[in-house]
Amino acid sequence: MDKQIDQSTTNPQASRKSTGLRQVAAVAGVSTATVSRVLNNPESVSEGLRTRVLMVIDQLGWVPNAAARALSSNRTGAIGAIFPALGVGDFARAIDAMQDALAARNYLLLLARSRYDAALELVQARKLVERGVDGLILVGSTRSQDYEQFLRRLSIPYINSFVFDADSAIPCVGPDNARAMAEMVDYLVSLGHRRFGMIAQTNRNNDRAAARRDGVRDALARYGLAIPPQAMVEGEWSIAEGRKLLRQVLATSPRPTAIICGNALLAIGAVLEAAEMHIVLPRDLSIVGYDDTELMSELPQPITTVRVASDRVGKLAADLIVDMLEGQTSVSGARIPSEIVVRSTTGPAPQD
Amino acid sequence: MDKQIDQSTTNPQASRKSTGLRQVAAVAGVSTATVSRVLNNPESVSEGLRTRVLMVIDQLGWVPNAAARALSSNRTGAIGAIFPALGVGDFARAIDAMQDALAARNYLLLLARSRYDAALELVQARKLVERGVDGLILVGSTRSQDYEQFLRRLSIPYINSFVFDADSAIPCVGPDNARAMAEMVDYLVSLGHRRFGMIAQTNRNNDRAAARRDGVRDALARYGLAIPPQAMVEGEWSIAEGRKLLRQVLATSPRPTAIICGNALLAIGAVLEAAEMHIVLPRDLSIVGYDDTELMSELPQPITTVRVASDRVGKLAADLIVDMLEGQTSVSGARIPSEIVVRSTTGPAPQD
DNA sequence: TTGTAAGCGTTATCAA
DNA sequence: TTGATAACGCTTACAA
Fold it and tell me: What is the predicted pLDDT for the residue at B53?
């Protein structure tokens, strides 16, 4: 009796440890090294042993312990990404694509959110590094000194996304925000517009928004034009703000004939508010946005906007960082092209 | 000279290993156990040593290695969550709140996406468990046999979110989907509606959508009413589908006077399409949605809908799973209340 | 309150 | 191709 009861506890093989690589090795009658090789370097094991080990693994239902693996190999197979927001337009699409691309190459995506807060972003980066991510995907390219220093000391690769700078020392994957906006300005000027307003996305810790604003400013300057300070306002990311800010911009005199919005929701808000003010687009006013979400084309008045293939940003960023880790020779960034999608909110400038 | 130059490389202390807990201990003149305690159980260390150790940690810029920690303690401090989609309405809000709540309690959120695919969800769950998550937050409560078995064998806790079932053996945090819809039906019936149509979200691997549909059906049955098969259609999650399906439902005869949509985008599409068909809401037709995104109230015609505090779902789910891990006594689920938000798309049923 | 030292479950080096 | 065995960087009995 006693013996039977105690068996599971006293039997050294059974009791010592739950199923682990050691147990697999014991049952298969091979060394632990061989089991490990079957997983990480199957070609280096003879076929006979390989199939035998795989059978035992399956039979025992063994699942390797990621922590032990990470500790021993100094790699986790996880990539960290820090986004200002996760559920928002282009980021959401990029994240989906990124996750798929990483999964396809057997990496896990660890997501963090910085809320457009520089200090929080550094905290998040630290946490991800603690977790042992093998690489880091960041958004933008402008950072604090502390942050720069932290990154430089890192022994893991990282890249910038949603920006593109050919001269950057670290790889970038994204659109050229300034250029995209410059193209939009070219288009509007070609329609005869000379008086502009802008409902920009706030610049706070957002170099993409800043680049878009600069792109507009510089492009206008090339035509000898400028946006008067009162007609240049900023908001975050909401329809309500777009509505409010449109009224603000239209209150300036002389009234702009074209208004450039810094993101999709601001543009939607502006267009909806214009309708409520009985302003007819594009007869009385042209409005454009940035980012081409489903809403931009499905609302009663489809909105002219800049389209960036965010899913390509995500996929390429993921592939790039993995390439860097796996020692590909040619790892450089990529400029994701942007295009102007002309819809019904833009037309010739009204005659004075 | 030589000595100075070589110091950093030959000094055994400096060269042997990069900064680790051992080095911190050496520099602070304490044992490794004390350093560990300072991090994990600060009260058990005298104040003098504690501050000394903390200074050294800061000075050396030491970052603990999560893998080693996990291996040694058998806890990772990570919670896994699997959502059908990440960037969509209520899930996006819940994820944000979840992440904040977990961070506040020093846990990391590991996100995975199942795309409403049952097989993929099980794969994701396996991966998260391999990674060593301490707990799992799932969406819904209906799963395949394999999946159920996998979860039962797990030694870590898990919970269901976005559903509520008081009788469930495992904790649920979410709204009562059926009840929310039943309340909507009560409201519409009280307005005199008797002929209903439904643009449901597809049921495929989505027990929330199924519950909402059942909720509508059962509530109508209590009034002796039913939706004819042709007036019951389903779509995924897009404005375009909402538009198309509205036409389909309105083509049935007799024409419904009230149409219930299974999610926000379907409702928005239906309302926009109605406007294009010159159908005046709510005079000619009432339309309601589910989920209260910003768009539901900001579009030209604000839409009557069900509001669920998704951020509370996220926060409570996070707190609940951590409570379970930290051995709180009373861990039970929570029903998150829902409410009907009446806007301009609903009114008395038109007279025949 | 503090220290000693034995793991935790893998990988990877070296020999065979 | 395979096997022994020493790390990997922490946590945690147990002892002092």
Answer: 95
Note whether B195 contacts A: Cβ–Cβ < 8 A. no
Is the sign of the CA dihedral A200, A201, A203, A207 positive or negative?
A: negative
Note the CA–C1' distance, A34 to C14, in angstroms. 15
Q: State the pLDDT confidence band at A154, using cuts at 50, 70 and 90.
A: confident
- Per the rule left: phi > 0, alpha: psi between -120 and 50, beta: everything else, A270 is alpha
Amino acid at residue number B95: I
Say whether pLDDT at B6 is over 50.
Answer: no
B164-178 burial code (b ≥16 CB/10 A, e <16)? bbeeeeebbbbbbbb
Cα separations (Å) of B248 from A33, B76, B151, B344, B345?
64, 51, 41, 23, 19
Q: What CA–CA distance (Å, rounded) separates A270 from A275?
A: 9
Residue A86: the pLDDT is: 87
Q: What is the rounded average pLDDT of the residues A211-216? A: 96
Nearest residue (Cα to C1') for C9?
A: A68
- pLDDT, tens only, B316-325: 999 999 999 9
- Cα separation, B219 vs B193, in Å, equals 13
A183 Cβ contact list (under 8 Å, min separation 6): A306, A338, A340
Q: Is B58 on the interface with A (CB under 8 A)?
A: no
Identify from A69, A71, A153, A156 which residue to disrupt to test chain B contact, counting B C-beta atoms within 10 A and taking the largest count: A71
pLDDT for A70 equals: 94
Query: Domains of chain B by range and CATH?
Result: 7-72 (1.10.260.40), 77-175+311-337 (3.40.50.2300), 177-308 (3.40.50.2300)
Q: How many angstroms away from the CA of A79 is the closest CA of chain B?
A: 12
Edge to edge, what strands does the sheet with B196-201 contain?
B232-235, B196-201, B258-261, B286-288
Write down the H helix ranges in chain A. Answer: 2-10, 12-16, 21-28, 32-40, 47-60, 66-73, 89-104, 118-130, 145-153, 177-190, 207-222, 239-250, 264-276, 294-298, 310-325
Q: Is the CB of B31 under 7 A from strand C?
A: yes
pLDDT at A14 over 70: no
CA of B130 to C1' of D1 (A): 29
Strand, helix or coil for residue A255: coil
Is pLDDT above 80 for B47? yes
> Is the pLDDT assigned to residue B5 strictly greater than 50?
no
| Dihedral, CA of residue A21, residue A24, residue A29 and residue A32, to nearest 10 | -10
The predicted-structure confidence for B284-309, as pLDDT tens digits, reads as follows 999 999 999 989 999 989 999 999 99
Strands B108-113 and A196-201: unpaired
Q: Do A86 and B88 make contact, defined as CB atoms within 8 angstroms?
A: no
Q: What is the dihedral of CA A226, A231, A232, A238, to 10 degrees?
A: -140
Protein-proximal nucleotides of chain D (any atom < 7 Å from a CB): 1-13
SS3 B171: coil
| Structure tokens belonging to residue A291 | 């980012």
pLDDT tens-digit map of B213-270: 999 999 999 999 999 999 999 999 899 999 999 999 999 999 999 999 999 999 999 9
Q: What is the model's pTM?
A: 0.88
**Which residues 6+ apart lie within 8 Å of B324 measured at CB?**
B135, B157, B159, B171, B331
Question: How does strand B232-235 pair with strand B158-161?
Answer: unpaired
Give chain A's mean pLDDT.
Answer: 91
- A168 CA: distance to closest CA in chain B (Å): 28
Rg (CA), chain B: 27
Locate A200 and state its tokens. Answer: 């920009």
The angle that helices A145-153 and A118-130 make with each other, rounded to 10 degrees, is 20
